[in-house]
Amino acid sequence: MTDTTTKPSAKPLASQTLFRGLDIVSAVADGCRTVREISERTGITFSTTHRLASALVQIRYLHFEPRKGYRLGSRLVELGFLAYRESPVTVTARPFLEALAAETQDTVHLAALDDDEGIIYLDKVGGKRPIEVNTRIGGRKPVCSTSVGKALILDEGRQAWKKRYEQEAAKGQAGRLSLDEWLAAMATYAAHGYTYDMAENVAGIRCVGAPVRDASGDIVASISVTSTDAYTDEARMQEVIPLVQKVARQISQQLGAAG
User: Helix/strand/coil (H, E, C) string of 5-65?
Assistant: First the structure.
């Protein structure tokens, strides 16, 4: 008779190893560089961390340099570009983002919600103004203090907004507005279909955002035009609102949303 007593545990064990490996990759992405730092961040034992990290180096998911430690490997870069090229929202939005950046001369972003970890930038088109906007494709930012973040949650309603604000405030990420001020602003944004970031996330940076919807009418992404307060006073932001909304509608229509 064949002994099958060990078979039921094989799959959970493999899954556990997989999740630990992913936790290690995430820790390195968050800036952990040594085995000890990764172990402390993930709660995985030092020896297991070392073994899994070494395996991840072999398959190019991590890269290791003596005295510098671990960083993300070239295979993750390859996979990231594959995911970028295959994303229907990113592919659809790209020509519209380029046109908006050319029209406004400002930096344009495309973003989506990243579960409870804030927003993630899906694309970025640089503007022509001599300014540096400290964002990158794949980078993450809070929801409540960014125009793209606010645009992504316009449909959620007051109770959900309040919960998000309190969660980010507990992490020191909610921005400079009080809860009441922020909720009042969100109500205005939801009524008019645009959002602002008035230097709430980064000093001197102002943004105008709008939501992107799919065929079901759900918000699946958002876009923003980003500049500095030197180029963007209140009058300029008012001028940009219809431009951002127009492009957001164009992308939405390409994704099947009603016109």
Answer: CCHHHHHHHHHHHHHHHHHHHHHHHCCCCCHHHHHHHHCCCHHHHHHHHHHHHHCCCEEEE
CA 99 to chain centre: 22
Q: Is the confidence at residue 84, as pLDDT, over 80?
A: no
The structure's pTM equals: 0.71
- Backbone angles phi and psi of 112, in degrees to 5: -145, 160
Q: What pLDDT does 4 receive?
A: 42
**Position 43 pLDDT exceeds 60:** yes
Give the mean pLDDT of the chain: 89
Q: pLDDT tens-digit profile of 188-198? A: 999 999 999 99
70 within 8 A of 28, measured Cβ to Cβ = yes
Residue 120 and residue 113: Cα distance in Å, rounded? 6
Instruction: Give the chain's radius of gyration (CA, Å).
Output: 21
- Would the pLDDT of 249 be above 70? yes
Alpha carbon distance 130, 121 (integer Å): 21
